[in-house]
């Protein structure tokens, strides 16, 4: 039977938790991560399978969700909705999840597996199913807060030498102006941005205005995680572009932020917005409104990473994203091949059926700490 003409019906959903140590700790203004706890999803339909990865953190610091809340939401709410249901287009799955408030990352983990399955079942590249056109995507890196400034300079050197096209460094009060001065003394011309993960308030406006000295591409999320009003006040006082991350949780939030002029760039994250369907809507809206976007990252393992690559092939993703090589995060990634970046800072988008990155089932099983199966 051909999946081309027929509906796809979900027979089973499997969720599992894997533990994967990072090669180097990753520190943001909200804390340090040494080891990832990652929830993976897998959907089954008549011999075909699809994979998803939940991008929640271990603790509710980036958003309200954690791997444990996502586990409960998938088990208690999402699995009962999708098991036994069929669809023509995977965007229909996001419609079934519409009544659910919040919990975007849990929803994305299930919805994205359904997109992944559809691409595999139809024997077509996921990037094409999403409407992608770019065959290679420009890559940047996100460098966490380090123990010492020297260590940061060393990390920047490694990534500049590797060919990455934009360096983003994490900042927080006390690790900001002096660090940026030092980086700019050493690297006056590299494309540079900063990400504060909501660690400032409007009371810091004089400090934030001095960041204009550093010719940054953007200042990502300086103010409240759910704010678009204060950012609008701040943007009017800065020459540097503000990039919004945390508050862009839906197409409606993106539309409001653009209307309010809360920033000049948007970071699109699949998990934060609730999956591919909503991410495509935000991309298209930004594209029509001349709002540049780039694809953010959440320290994903290979399945999430491969989905970010497919997403980044849509035509509006012209700025380098936070989608970078597997080896920067993990000794051994869960996909084959691992994600690699060319020495001029691009990832080729595989033009083959599925994502072009095959999950390593045996290895995934070995690092699994819990697993649950839901079926009709
Ligand atoms: O704000 O973009 C962020 C990682 C975890 C949580 C939030 C963020 C990040 C990153 C890392 O900046 C991006 C990556 O390399 O995956
Ligand atoms: Mg960010």
From TrEMBL:
<dbReference type="Pfam" id="PF02746">
    <property type="entry name" value="MR_MLE_N"/>
</dbReference>
<dbReference type="InterPro" id="IPR013342">
    <property type="entry name" value="Mandelate_racemase_C"/>
</dbReference>
<dbReference type="GO" id="GO:0043748">
    <property type="term" value="F:O-succinylbenzoate synthase activity"/>
</dbReference>
<dbReference type="InterPro" id="IPR013341">
    <property type="entry name" value="Mandelate_racemase_N_dom"/>
</dbReference>
<dbReference type="Pfam" id="PF13378">
    <property type="entry name" value="MR_MLE_C"/>
</dbReference>
<feature type="domain" description="Mandelate racemase/muconate lactonizing enzyme C-terminal">
    <location>
        <begin position="149"/>
        <end position="241"/>
    </location>
</feature>
<dbReference type="GO" id="GO:0016854">
    <property type="term" value="F:racemase and epimerase activity"/>
</dbReference>
<dbReference type="InterPro" id="IPR036849">
    <property type="entry name" value="Enolase-like_C_sf"/>
</dbReference>
<protein>
    <recommendedName>
        <fullName>o-succinylbenzoate synthase</fullName>
        <ecNumber>4.2.1.113</ecNumber>
    </recommendedName>
</protein>
<keyword id="KW-0479">Metal-binding</keyword>
<dbReference type="GO" id="GO:0046872">
    <property type="term" value="F:metal ion binding"/>
</dbReference>
<dbReference type="InterPro" id="IPR010197">
    <property type="entry name" value="OSBS/NAAAR"/>
</dbReference>
<dbReference type="GO" id="GO:0009234">
    <property type="term" value="P:menaquinone biosynthetic process"/>
</dbReference>
<keyword id="KW-0460">Magnesium</keyword>
<dbReference type="InterPro" id="IPR029017">
    <property type="entry name" value="Enolase-like_N"/>
</dbReference>
<keyword id="KW-0456">Lyase</keyword>
<dbReference type="InterPro" id="IPR029065">
    <property type="entry name" value="Enolase_C-like"/>
</dbReference>
């Amino acid at each position: 039977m051909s999946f081309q003409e027929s509906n796809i019906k979900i027979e089973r959903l499997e969720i599992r938790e894997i533990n994967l140590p990072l090669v180097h700790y990753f520190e943001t203004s909200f804390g340090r991560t040494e080891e990832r706890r990652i929830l993976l999803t897998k959907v089954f339909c008549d011999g075909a399978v699809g994979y998803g990865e939940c991008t929640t953190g271990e603790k509710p610091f980036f958003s309200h969700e954690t791997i444990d809340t996502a586990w409960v939401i998938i088990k208690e709410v999402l699995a009962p909705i999708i098991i036994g249901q069929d669809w023509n287009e995977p965007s229909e799955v996001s419609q079934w999840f519409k009544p659910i408030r919040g919990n975007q990352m849990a929803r994305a983990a299930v919805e994205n597996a359904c997109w992944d399955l559809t691409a595999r079942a139809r024997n077509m590249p996921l990037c094409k199913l999403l409407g992608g056109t770019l065959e290679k995507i420009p890559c940047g890196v996100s460098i966490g807060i380090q123990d010492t400034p020297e260590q940061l300079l060393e990390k920047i050197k490694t990534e500049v030498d590797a060919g990455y096209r934009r360096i983003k460094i994490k900042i927080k009060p006390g690790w900001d102006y002096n660090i940026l001065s030092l980086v700019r003394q050493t690297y006056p011309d590299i494309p540079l941005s900063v990400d504060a993960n909501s660690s400032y308030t409007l009371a810091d406006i004089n400090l934030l205005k001095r960041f204009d000295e550093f010719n940054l591409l953007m200042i990502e999320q300086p103010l409240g995680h759910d704010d678009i009003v204060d950012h609008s006040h701040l943007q009017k006082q800065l020459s540097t572009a503000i990039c919004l991350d945390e508050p862009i949780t839906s197409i409606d939030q993106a539309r409001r932020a653009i209307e309010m002029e809360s920033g000049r760039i948007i970071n699109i994250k699949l998990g934060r917005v609730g999956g591919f369907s909503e991410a495509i809507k935000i991309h298209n809206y930004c594209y029509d409104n001349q709002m540049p976007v780039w694809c953010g990252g959440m320290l994903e393992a290979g399945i999430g990473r491969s989905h970010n690559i497919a997403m980044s092939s849509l035509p509006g993703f012209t700025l380098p994203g936070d989608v970078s090589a597997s080896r920067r995060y993990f000794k051994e990634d869960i996909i084959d091949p691992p994600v690699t970046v060319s020495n001029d800072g691009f990832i080729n988008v595989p033009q083959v059926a599925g994502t072009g990155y095959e999950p390593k089932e045996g290895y995934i099983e070995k690092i699994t700490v819990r697993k649950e199966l839901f079926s009709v």
